[in-house]
Design a protein that fits this description.
Strand content: 25-35%
Largest sheet: 5 strands, antiparallel
Number of helices: 1
Distance between the termini: 26 Å
Order of helices and strands: EEEEHEEEE
Strand order of the largest sheet: 4-3-2-1-5
Helix content: 10-25%
Shape: globular
Length: 115
């Protein structure tokens, strides 16, 4: 399960938040842009409720502010909305710092630093 929300009173470290409840726990990601991008920071929690409490206490995000989004595709980054993955990850040979994204059902090179 993933959900996103805008921060009602943006700060220098967060204008948007994402929660991802995955197999290894719950992550709260902070973004400094409203555009789809990798998170600037993340925090780990045991439960979605704990992450939502922090989002509310520190950033003013109310429970009604969250919008559900699709879970990431297999091998894809948790913090990107679009399907973005580390190149070679699906083959068990990850190339750290090199990314690819799915375009028209084909994986193509992706350079997030250009965004």
């Amino acid at each position: 399960m993933r959900q996103i929300a805008r921060v009602p009173q943006p700060t220098s470290d967060a204008v948007r938040l994402m929660i991802h409840d995955g197999a290894d726990g719950v992550y709260l990601f902070g973004f400094d842009t409203l555009e789809d991008a990798g998170g600037r920071w993340d925090q780990w929690y045991e439960t979605v409720a704990a992450a939502e409490e922090v989002a509310h206490a520190e950033y003013g995000v109310a429970p009604a502010d969250w919008q559900a989004i699709a879970d990431p595709l297999e091998h894809c980054q948790q913090d990107w909305i679009a399907p973005v993955r580390i190149k070679g990850c699906a083959e068990g040979q990850p190339q750290q710092g090199h990314f690819e994204t799915l375009v028209n059902n084909e994986w193509v090179d992706f350079h997030p630093e250009q965004f």
